[in-house]
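User: Good morning. I'm curious how manganese (II) ion would be positioned relative to this chain. Could you predict the structure with it bound?
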Amino acid sequence: MTKLSFSARKIKDASQARTQCAILPVFSKKTLSVAARQLDKASAGAVTAAIRLGDFTGKSGQSCMLPGVGGNKRLLLVGCGDKGKFDRAAARELGKTVSKALANSEASEAILYSADLELQDGDSRWLLCWLARHFTCAAYRYTQTLSKPKPAAKLARLVVEPGSLGSAAAGKALDRGAAMGRGVNEARELANLPGNICTPSYLAQHARKLGREQANLSVSVLEEKKMKELGMGSLLSVSAGSDQPAKLVVMHYKGGKAGQKPYVLVGKGITFDSGGISIKPGAKMDEMKFDMGGAASVFGTLRTVTELQLPINVVGIVAAAENMPSGSATKPGDVVTSMAGKTIEVLNTDAEGRLVLCDALTYAGRFQPRVVIDIATLTGACVVALGSHATGLYANEDKLAEELLAAGTESHDRAWRMPLWEDYQKQLDSNFADIANIGGPGGGSITAACFLARFAEDYHWAHLDIAGTAWDSAPKGATGRPVAMLSQYLIEQAG
Ligand code: BES
Ligand code: MN
Ligand code: ZN
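Assistant: Good morning! Here's the predicted structure, ligand included:
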């Protein structure tokens, strides 16, 4: 993949700049920006002529590519709507319109005349961060298992105007956005890989590779033998029916002071969820390769954190296993003992995410965490409740919940808080164990979170149910959520 690079540069006179593609935002009502007027003059009125034709009115979502304008090989006019209503939503639309228009262009570098883009509900920092992230994500192509992959995007360099910001601050915002975008893409790539390639061992290998690349990232992998010694009977009950051994991957990023308590991220890494003996129906079962989306987001967030070298400590834990039926698989009614000592009646082997996560959450306690956040494609019920726009957020502490919600809003990778009330806990009562692994038909996402809460009592904890947000079904592909939210949260924590 071509690595897209960004830079911020003040451009006094657009008619003097030479580029393969000048990207010119135009508001409706045809009030031309300074750059637009300069380019119009340099091209004997090409811009105003295009507008006069009436095909391009500056409406949001519109674009118009003109060849050879001034010293530029191309000029892309992009509609931005009403200047007085230009907000973050309109800026996101602008990004999408530009990347769509450039997708089939041969231009390998471009200048985006962004100086006049003043947000009604944000600043240039947000805008530049968003643009860098958006264009980085738009350049992503899945190629690994295609014999004839779609051609890579041509764009390799994008220059933007710093607007009201100084060049240094603008560069920082671009770096941040690009690092977030690469984190998102990392998560997408891992999650898109098929289950026969992306096994628990593959995730462990991938982590080891990251550890070799990064000086302040140390990686260790707990094998099944070690997990057995630690008493992780719940996690191991999930991999019992699979030929693929489970792995508990621990990645320790040390960007802060030695004694500083770490932020711990715990990802559900079910590399394929057949349901086990409580086997799933066939329709869309292929999508259960995405059941390691939580794990993928831990890898992605760590990529962003390491690229930015944030001055904090972060531990990423990935609970990786494959959920399969076989003669050695866990059966409905089996009782297993978790690392915390609590016994669990496995009433449904398809509720396996919580079974791997509970032991990983207990293990997370060792790091004396500042907070623990688990991320999991945990329940179909969450998709029923929130659809595909919001991640379900649960937390045993209000400040953490509010910070994550705010980070989600800021990065437009949003979550919605759900209740963890004691009232729901009764649904997990079992006659044969301390707790059952399913809570009946009502409130399935909530009772799954309530199950996890019982293993996260010793620290501040949040749980993100990303079942509806981790991937799209049409066109099928991983979204990389919630890497942006988590990165934003950690960036803010790092100060
Ligand atoms: N990985 C699934 C959750 C899921 C299902 C995510 C569909 C996205 C789309 C999880 O392991 C699961 O199977 N959960 C069960 C729980 C039930 C047995 C209590 C579910 O949601 O049906
Ligand atoms: Mn399942
Ligand atoms: Zn699952």
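The pocket of manganese (II) ion (ligand 2) is lined by residues 273, 275, 350, 352 (CB under 6 Å). DSSP finds 14 helices and 19 strands in the chain.
Let me know if you'd like a different ligand tried.
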